[in-house]
Amino acid sequence: MGLAVRLRDAAPTRATTSLYLGVVGGGGHGLVALTFWIGIPTLVSLSANDPQAAAAVVSSLTLLTGGAEAFGNLFLALSMASAGSAILSSRALPAWIGWVALAAAAFTLTRIVATDTPLAALAFVAFFPSLILAVMFRIGAGIALQGSQPDELSRPPEPVLGMAGR
């Protein structure tokens, strides 16, 4: 939210886009955790009674959590791309943070697009850089936002509609 507030004056549409895509991506990752929370105890219970059925459930659980993870990663990558673009065009934060956001988005999107294709090795290679760059972006943006004035961050967001003239 703080990042969107910092970017909204210079790049209102991309700031709002980054915020909403990030919320949706976080929801996708929340589905992974929820699936594990509900699925693993069910799997343990099932394995005690019917080991063959439990083996089939493992495949289903893997597919379900993999889909939710890819969904979350897609939207978080698009959120970082939007934020990075807004940072670079507005200079609301240091430019290196924008470049790191764009690189994190590119590596994350590569992981999603290349998985289970002939380029699967590329997805494997992109895994650790995508994590490291995403963490660098979040830490860098958080440190840069530390200097924000409290009244600047508490001002309610303006609606996106009606900002076309900006």
Please render the helix and strand layout as text:
Layout: H1 2-8, H2 12-49, H3 51-90, H4 95-114, H5 120-145, H6 150-154
Helix pairs in contact: 1-2, 2-3, 3-4, 4-5
- Unreliable spans are none
**Alpha-carbon distance between the two ends:** 21 Å
Order of helices and strands: HHHHHH
Mean pLDDT: 86
Largest sheet report: none
Overview of this protein structure:
This protein is mainly alpha-helical. It has one domain. It contains six helices and no strands. Helix 1 packs antiparallel against helix 2 (12-49). The chain is elongated. 29% of the residues are buried. The mean pLDDT is 86.
Structural features:
elongated; 166 residues; mainly alpha
Concise structural overview:
This protein has 166 residues and is mostly helical. It has one domain (2-151). Helices cover 82% and strands 0% of the residues.
